[in-house]
Write a structure and sequence with these properties.
The chain is mainly beta and 157 residues long. It is built from one helix and eight strands. The strands form three sheets. Strands 1-8-5 form a three-stranded antiparallel beta sheet, with no helix packed on it. Strands 4-7-6 form a three-stranded antiparallel beta sheet, with no helix packed on it.
């Protein structure tokens, strides 16, 4: 019975949290299309009348928010404006590798911290070309930690 219920409970957890709670190595590409304005400005969708348009915040993209939580560690970060999301020949070569503490920083998960998944750029901003930053990182809880996670009572109803 438990084996039958486990996949359903895991699906419900992922839906509720918005990410997978199981620890895994993840590869993601940033920024998404919402930051594709060029000129170093962050864009966001806005509704004007019955149309959706892109508005500029007038700010450079300083922080990328990784999709999975909690952030345990960042394995690699590559920045390659000519990568076309990894499809270009030679995309994300070794020369595009960034250095933690020099080019970017993050706060990993600890018992007293959340590991929010914020990846901050040092001394500049992230490129606005879609999918020009490749991030490989470890996120989630280990099997031993999952039983200690408490959810609201209404979550399991």
């Amino acid at each position: 019975m438990l084996e039958m219920l486990q996949p359903m409970v895991e699906r419900r957890c992922r839906t509720f949290l918005g990410y997978d709670i199981t620890q895994a190595t993840v590869t993601e590409y940033y920024p998404g299309h919402e930051f594709s304005g060029g000129g170093g400005e962050e864009l966001y969708p806005d509704a004007i009348g019955n149309r959706v348009v892109w508005q500029s915040t007038g700010r450079a993209l300083q922080t990328i928010y990784l999709q999975q939580r909690p952030l345990r560690s960042v394995t690699t970060v590559n920045e390659d404006a000519a990568a076309y999301g990894g499809l270009a020949s030679g995309a994300f070569a070794a020369s595009t590798l960034l250095t933690a503490g020099t080019d970017y920083w993050y706060a990993p998960y600890r018992t007293s911290r959340a590991g929010t998944g914020a990846l901050h750029r040092i001394g500049g901003s992230w490129p606005t070309m879609p999918r020009s930053v490749k991030v490989v990182y470890v996120a989630g809880w280990t099997a031993a930690e999952i039983p200690r996670i408490s959810f609201p009572n209404w979550f399991c109803s």
